[in-house]
Amino acid sequence: MTQVLRGKPWARSSRTESPSALHGRRIVHLLSGVAMIGLLSLGAAHAGPPFITDDPVPTPLGQWEVYGFSAATQVDGDMGGTLVGTEINHGAAPGLMLHMVIPLAFDAASGQGLKGGPGDIELGAKYRFVDASEKDWWPQIATFPLIEVPVGNARRNLGGGRFREYLPIWMEKDFGRWTTYGGGGYWINPGPGNRNYWFVGWLLQRQVTDQLALRLPINR
Questions:
Q1: pLDDT digit of tens for each residue in the chain (220 aa)?
Q2: Element (H, E) at 36
Q3: Contact 203, 35 (CB under 8 A)
Q4: Peptide bond preceding 168: is omega within 30 degrees of 0, i.e. cis?
């Protein structure tokens, strides 16, 4: 299966605001805006921009996937995120995918001008421990722990300044041209004024043609 625009395009400014500080924040996807508005993406894709929800399908054994993306958030006149990001996935073993995201972060606070530089690097490993075909009644299930490595300059709002971890479980079931997948997990989010929190998301997809899929995501 060809996957396109794979990634997690929430704001990669890597700031460590608490969820309450992020409440009401308007997500501005600099790429894949059409997909967000129209729930449309090209190719027979699974999770990818602009969707935060992931799926349990790893990169095929021995193959590489390299994707580019851009994303930002804006609130109270302050915009920040990833100007340009690269995601690299590799099928390292049966059912196992190794993952890395390398972002070029930016911050444009009101009255302070534009700042840019390396952002926090994301490392992860997706392991599908339950496989399933379309004929099986049970879903595919995988875990995909992530760690955000504090590479970006926190004093310039280009990084979080601390390690952050995400511990999720993802599931998927296929029904012909219909696919549903989702799950969630727990973010460990240290730092002054921050707190740990849960994220849950689900998505319903209809493959209209080989090159067109409609998606309806729900995230909390």
A1: 333 333 333 333 333 344 433 333 333 434 433 333 333 434 445 565 445 789 999 999 999 999 999 988 888 778 999 999 999 999 999 999 999 999 999 999 877 889 999 999 999 999 999 999 999 999 999 999 999 999 999 999 899 999 999 999 999 999 999 999 999 999 999 998 899 999 999 999 999 998 899 989 888 8
A2: helix 33-38
A3: no
A4: no
Positions of E strands within the chain: 26-28, 40-42, 64-75, 78-93, 96-109, 113-118, 121-130, 140-143, 146-149, 164-175, 178-188, 197-209, 212-219
Residue 180 contacts residue 203 (beta carbons within 8 Å):
yes
User: Could you tell me the residue ranges of all domains in the chain?
Assistant: 19-219
CB-count exposure of residue 76 (10 Å: 0-12, 13-18, 19+): exposed
DSSP notation for 115-158 = EEEE--EEEEEEEEEE---TTSSSPEEEE--EEEE--S-GGGTS
Enter the tokens of residue 124: 């992860």
